[in-house]
Design goal:
21 helices, 16% strand, Rossmann fold
Length: 553
């Protein structure tokens, strides 16, 4: 029976087990919208393609299944590229469908024409354009396989308008059987011997393709073997932070003691992480040209092993599977001092350092950490405000942290909307800066329309805080381009149909949060921050004074 391309596409998505898609509608893929009409697959209509892409990426992080995105050609595809960049750097499986001009109009610079192979080529794992209606099942099956194989990532399929509306009687295709790389027993035993022989080993967790079972396995292994474990940037949910073996996160503004420990280690067991510039503080703590440490690297793609740092042992396997195999090994006796010292450094770093003002973010985050349920989901984008979350919140379960390792501003709020839709009834909290929130706050309309109920805690200090910090460090007192004129965020939330409150003292936050949660609506709690509050370690005035002294000003 002949179907148009949109119906064929929708059937292919159903065959892949797609539960939800995110989109901003466009005339270039009307047939796909028509196909979704009868598919039973919910279509979350968003307000801007960047927000839609970030929702799809967050959905994939949370569910482990590829996030699916539909955007129109030209401007829509350009807007969506922000979320696709997040997916690529965060190793998140995504399949993005992009509308395209009719095939007969190519190379005329037709309305919104873009060469997607050239545009998206460096940004995603694979990009293709489907020229024949009857080949849609083939391309879609391949797209999902590529997105989830090896190191996961985003795939883009461009859909010419006339191809999509064309008819074909092609049969549906079942998904490709996954090809899962596995470590053999000899490799695991070799890894065990390396760990047993090391005096100062450190495990570094990261990457995607993780699970709650893997988090528990790493914890059992690390506690039995007395090996400290560090999470790479924004992967703190990969292990229960309450474990005596957990040593903190290798992040922007990391605990200096943890940085010293990374540099002093005689063995790094890198489970899934890429061990990039953030984890090594700009490659200063470990030099790729002369690492000075033995490295065992576990990654699902052979191309990632030795890509930056040479490895003494490379294992092509999913880090989650290797975690389970390590947990099954008999542990070797070890002096616990190294592991205990790492934990003591983490505990000391957790002690709140007071910041200026009546609203103290360290206390707000501490309250959230102590009072939220263990399954509560925390999201954030980029900005200095996130350092308080990373430093003072203890993640207890896998799947409770959604944050961009790519450092993308605006990510936290769309991610919180996607999380609330994927886990209805679960408490979802987005911590945002005033600049970060304003990049995607129009998705409040999406949240209200689709019944998402995240609580956004906005740290409002009237500036782009991270850039202001760097500005004061390099050009103290010469403020340019970092101040913000902000709306009344609480009133804006109410205008969208959500709940909104303003908090001007730390002591008022707990009750404001409870009211926001009890409202049953998307909510915003605006924190009026002191203008001198800049980072977890230093105020704006102290940062400027130190820079002036250093520069002789």
């Amino acid at each position: 029976m002949a179907r148009h391309g949109g119906q064929i596409l929708a059937a292919a998505l159903a065959a892949q087990g797609v539960e939800r898609v995110f989109s901003v509608p466009g005339e270039s893929f009307l047939a796909a919208l028509d196909g979704l009409y009868d598919s039973g697959i919910p279509n979350v209509v968003c307000r801007q393609e960047g927000g839609a892409a970030m929702m799809a990426e967050a959905h994939a992080k949370l569910t482990g299944k590829p996030g699916v995105l539909f955007v129109t050609r030209g401007p829509g595809a350009s807007n969506a590229s922000a979320g696709l960049h997040v997916a690529m750097q965060d190793s998140t499986p995504m399949v993005a469908f992009v509308g395209q001009i009719a095939r007969g109009h190519r190379d005329r610079e037709a309305f919104q024409e873009v060469n997607y192979r050239a545009f998206f080529g460096p940004l995603v794992k694979w990009v293709a354009e489907v020229d024949q209606t009857e080949r849609l099942p083939e391309y879609i099956a391949r797209a999902f396989h590529v997105a989830t194989s090896g190191r996961p990532g985003p795939v883009v399929l461009a859909l010419p308008e006339d191809m999509l509306s064309g008819q074909s009687d092609v049969a549906d295709l079942a998904p490709t059987a996954p090809a899962v790389p596995r470590a053999d027993a000899d490799q695991i035993e070799a890894l065990g011997r390396m760990i047993a022989a090391a005096e100062r080993p450190l495990v570094v967790l990261g990457g995607s393709d993780w699970s709650a079972e893997a988090a528990a396995a790493v914890q059992r292994f690390a506690e039995a073997w007395q090996v400290p474990v560090a999470a790479s940037f924004r992967r703190q949910g990969h292990m229960d932070n309450r474990s005596p073996a957990y040593a903190g996160d290798l992040a922007v503004g990391m605990n200096p003691k943890l940085g010293e420990r990374l540099a002093a280690a005689d063995l790094l067991v890198v489970l899934g992480a890429r061990l990039g510039d953030i984890a090594t503080r700009g490659y200063e703590l470990i030099d790729p040209a002369a690492p000075g440490v033995r490295i065992a690297h576990v990654a699902p793609d052979a191309c990632e092993i030795g890509k930056v740092f040479r490895a003494d042992l490379g294992i092509v396997a999913r880090a989650a599977d290797v975690a389970a195999q390590l947990a099954a090994l008999d542990h070797a006796p070890r002096d616990p001092a190294w592991c205990r010292a790492a934990r003591a450094d983490y505990e000391a770093w957790q002690q709140p350092k007071e910041t200026p003002g009546q609203v103290k973010l360290e206390e707000v985050v501490g309250w959230l950490s102590a009072n939220l349920s263990e399954d509560a989901i925390l999201t954030n984008g980029a900005g200095n405000y996130a350092a308080w979350l990373h430093r003072y919140f203890r993640f207890k379960r896998y799947g409770t942290q959604l944050a961009p390792t790519s450092g993308s501003m605006g990510y936290g709020f769309p991610a919180s909307v996607a999380a609330s839709l994927a886990r209805p009834g679960t408490c979802v909290v987005c911590l945002a800066g005033d600049g970060c929130f304003q990049m995607t706050l129009n998705e409040m309309s999406t949240a209200v329309q689709h019944g998402a109920t995240p609580i956004v805690v906005v740290a409002n200090n009237g500036r782009y805080g991270t850039i202001r910090m760097h500005q004061e460090n390099h050009y103290p007192g010469r403020v340019s381009g970092t101040d913000l004129a902000n709306p009344d965020f609480a009133a804006l939330a109410r205008a969208y149909g959500g709940h909104g409150e303003v908090v001007e003292r730390t002591g008022d936050f707990p009750e404001a949060f409870r009211r926001a949660r009890d409202s049953g609506r998307a909510a915003v709690i605006e924190l009026k921050m002191d203008t001198d509050a800049l980072s977890t370690n230093q105020s704006l005035s102290a940062t400027r004074a130190a820079a002036l002294a250093r520069l002789g000003g």
